[in-house]
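Design request, C-alpha cells follow.
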C-alpha cells in the first residue's frame, strides 16, 4: 500500500504537522520514521527519585549518552563527526536522536521573529551592508502571524499578551510567569541607565493552568525541567503519545529505530518513497509514499538530500546549484557573570527557567550589526539548605552566608548572517547510531569580534548600574549547533533557495522540508516557535492538496 505521507523524523516539526493533518482528516495514512528509540517521559517515579537522590530525571536515564553525538575526535579521545574552519561548532548536546526529537532536552523559550527579520537582505542593503549571501524570506511576518498564534496554542506558551514587542492579534494561551526578585535588579538597572533598555516577560512553552483542552499538567514550577514529570513543559514525545493512544487515527504509524538512508525517486521531479534501515530487525526496508516530508532537523535533512537519488540528481536532491547544506548558521550564545558584593534580599533562584528577556537590541536599528537578546537566567542556588542544616549550621550562620554576596548573570544570543562557505555534508563513516557522521565547515564573519566587544560594553554598563563587581565578569561564547538553521533555505527563486514558499524542494513535485533548515535567515531568537508555525502552515497546504486530490 502507498502511504499518503511519509515523515522523516519525529521532532516538534513532524508532530505539529501530523497533528494538524490528523485533526482535520483523521484517516490520513501517515508513516513517521524515527532514527532514535523511546525514553520514559511523564514518569512520576523519576521525580520521586529526584527528591530522594537529588539526581535530575533527565540525567538519571543516561539520556545524554543514549542519544547525543560524541564530541569531536580529540588527540587523546575517540570522537564523532568532523570539523574544519576557524570556529568550532560543537555537535555534542546540540540535538537528540529520539522519539520526539530535540524538544526532549530543549529550554522551551518560544519567541516570534520580528517583522524586519523577514526582510534581512532588503534591510542590510538599505544600510549598504548586504553580502551576496543573505536573502529575504519569501513570506512576511503578517503571513505567518496566524500560524504563530496556532503554534503558541500547540506548544502551550505562557506569555504576556499585552507585550507588543512583536505585534500580535490574539492572546497567549497562558499568562506569563511573573518576574523573579532577581529580575527586579535588572529591571531597575535597565530603567536607570542614561539610555534605558526595554524588557519583557520571556514567552516559554510550559503549560499554564487555564487550558481546558489538553492532557498535559500545568507547570508546578518545581524547577526541575529538562524533564518534566507532569508533562507541563512541551515535549513532542508527549504529544505523539497522545496521538498514538487516541483511537481516532487508525492509519498513523510511527516506526522508531528506523534510519532513513535515502529518498527514492522514479523521475527527477517525483519521489516514490524512502529506503531505511530497521535497526531492531537488522534489515533494509523500502516504503512507498505519495509525499515525503523531511523533518530530520537542520543537520540531517540536508545530509539526507545530499546522499539521495544520485542517479537523477548528480549532487543530491535539489542540489543542482550547490545550495543544499550551505549557509549554515548557529547562534552564538554568550555568558556574562558578575558579583553583587551584598545580597540583602537573599536572592536565590526561584524558577528553573528564565522569566526576563530584553529584545531591546533585537531591532531594525541594530540588525545590520547582528541583533542580540539578553536573558537573566536562573543562577545556581548558592545554598543547599538540607546540607547546611545537617552540618549543624545555625539559622544565623546560614542567613549570613547567603547575604554575603550573589552571582548575577546575563546570557544572550547574537544574530549572525549566512555565508555560502559555511556548510554541512556527510562524511564517509557512520556513527554508533548508524547515521552518517557529519562534516561541518564554519568560519565566523570578520566583524563578529567587534560586535561582541560592543555587546560586552553594554553588559558591563548594566552590571555597573546594578553595583555588581566588574572584575568578576566572565565571558564565554558557545557556538554549539543548538539552533543550526538555513541549510535548505526558503526562497521563491530556485537560484538562491532550496525550497519554495510552500517548503517544497524546487524541481520536485512531492518532497517537502519541514525544519529550521528552511529558514531564510535566523534572527536573534530561538527558532522553534517559528518552525512550529511553518509546520502548521505546511499542514494547511497539504490538507488543501489532499482535498483537491480527493475531489478529482
Ligand atoms: C540544549 C538545547 C536547548 C534548546 N532550547 C531551545 C529553546 O529554549 N527554544 C527554542 O526555540 N529552541 C531551542 N532549542 C532548539 C530546538 O530543540 C530545535 O529547534 C527543535 O527541537 C528542532 O525540531 P525538529 O523537529 O526540526 O528537529 P529534531 O527535534 O532534532 O527532530 C529530528 C528528528 O529526526 C530524527 N532523524 C534525523 N535523521 C534521521 C534519519 N536519517 N532517519 C530517521 N530519523 C532521523 C532525529 O533522531 C530526531 O528525532 C534547543 C536546542 C538544544 C540543543
Ligand atoms: S518547572 Fe514546570 S515544566 Fe519544569 S519540571 Fe517543574 S513542573 Fe515541569
Amino acid at each position: 500500500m502507498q502511504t499518503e505521507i511519509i515523515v522523516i523524523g519525529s521532532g516538534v516539526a513532524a508532530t505539529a504537522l501530523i497533528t494538524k493533518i490528523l485533526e482535520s482528516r483523521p484517516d490520513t495514512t501517515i508513516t513517521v520514521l524515527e532514527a532514535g528509540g523511546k525514553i520514559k517521559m511523564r514518569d512520576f517515579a523519576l521525580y520521586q527519585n529526584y527528591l530522594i537522590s537529588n539526581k535530575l530525571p533527565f540525567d538519571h536515564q543516561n539520556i545524554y549518552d543514549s542519544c547525543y553525538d560524541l564530541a569531536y575526535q580529540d588527540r587523546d579521545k575517540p570522537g564523532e563527526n568532523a570539523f574544519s574552519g576557524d570556529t568550532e561548532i560543537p555537535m555534542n548536546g546540540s540535538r537528540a536522536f529520539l522519539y520526539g526529537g530535540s524538544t526532549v532536552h530543549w529550554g522551551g523559550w518560544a519567541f516570534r521573529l520580528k517583522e524586519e527579520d523577514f526582510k534581512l537582505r532588503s534591510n542590510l542593503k538599505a544600510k549598504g551592508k548586504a553580502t551576496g549571501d543573505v536573502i529575504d524570506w519569501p513570506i512576511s511576518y503578517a503571513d505567518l502571524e496566524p500560524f504563530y498564534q496556532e503554534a503558541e496554542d500547540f506548544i502551550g506558551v505562557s506569555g504576556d499578551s499585552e507585550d507588543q514587542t512583536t505585534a500580535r492579534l490574539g492572546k497567549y494561551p497562558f499568562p506569563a510567569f511573573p518576574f523573579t526578585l532577581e529580575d527586579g535588579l535588572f529591571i531597575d538597572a535597565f530603567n536607570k541607565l542614561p539610555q534605558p533598555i526595554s524588557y519583557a516577560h520571556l514567552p516559554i512553552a510550559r503549560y499554564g493552568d487555564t487550558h481546558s483542552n489538553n492532557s498535559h499538567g500545568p507547570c508546578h514550577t518545581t524547577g526541575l525541567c529538562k524533564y518534566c514529570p507532569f508533562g507541563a513543559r512541551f515535549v513532542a514525545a508527549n504529544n505523539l503519545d497522545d496521538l498514538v493512544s487516541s483511537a481516532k487515527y487508525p492509519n498513523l504509524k510511527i516506526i522508531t529505530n528506523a534510519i532513513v538512508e535515502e529518498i527514492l525517486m522514479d523521475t527527477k521531479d517525483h519521489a516514490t518513497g524512502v529506503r531505511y534501515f530497521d535497526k531492531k530487525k537488522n534489515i533494509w526496508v523500502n516504503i512507498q509514499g505519495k509525499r515525503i516530508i523531511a523533518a530530520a532537523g537542520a543537520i540531517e535533512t540536508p545530509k539526507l538530500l545530499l546522499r539521495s537519488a544520485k542517479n537523477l540528481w548528480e549532487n543530491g536532491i535539489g542540489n543542482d546549484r550547490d545550495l543544499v547544506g550551505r549557509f549554515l548558521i548557529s547562534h552564538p550564545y554568550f555568558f556574562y557573570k558578575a558579583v553583587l558584593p551584598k545580597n540583602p534580599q537573599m536572592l536565590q533562584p526561584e524558577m528553573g527557567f528564565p522569566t526576563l528577556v530584553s529584545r531591546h537590541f533585537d531591532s531594525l536599528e541594530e540588525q545590520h550589526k547582528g541583533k542580540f537578546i539578553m536573558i537573566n537566567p536562573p543562577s545556581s542556588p548558592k545554598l543547599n539548605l538540607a546540607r547546611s542544616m545537617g552540618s549543624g549550621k545555625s539559622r544565623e550562620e546560614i542567613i549570613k552566608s547567603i547575604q554575603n554576596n550573589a552571582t548575577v548573570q546575563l546570557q544572550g544570543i547574537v544574530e549572525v548572517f549566512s555565508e555560502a562557505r559555511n556548510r554541512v555534508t556527510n562524511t564517509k563513516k557512520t556513527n554508533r547510531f548508524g547515521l552518517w557522521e557529519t562534516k561541518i565547515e564554519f568560519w565566523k564573519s570578520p566583524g563578529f569580534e567587534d560586535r561582541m566587544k560592543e555587546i560586552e560594553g553594554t553588559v558591563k554598563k548594566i552590571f555597573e548600574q546594578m553595583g555588581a563587581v566588574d572584575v568578576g565578569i566572565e565571558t564565554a561564547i558557545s557556538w554549539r549547533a543548538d539552533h543550526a538553521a538555513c541549510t535548505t533555505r526558503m526562497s521563491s527563486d530556485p537560484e538562491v533557495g532550496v525550497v519554495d514558499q510552500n517548503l517544497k524542494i524546487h524541481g520536485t513535485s512531492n518532497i517537502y522540508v519541514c525544519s529550521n533548515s528552511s529558514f531564510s535567515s535566523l534572527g536573534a531568537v530561538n527558532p522553534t516557535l517559528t518552525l512550529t508555525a511553518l509546520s502548521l502552515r505546511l499542514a494547511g497546504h497539504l490538507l488543501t492538496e489532499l482535498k483537491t486530490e480527493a475531489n478529482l
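Comment from the thread starter after seeing the answer: thanks! The two ends are 20 Å apart (CA to CA).
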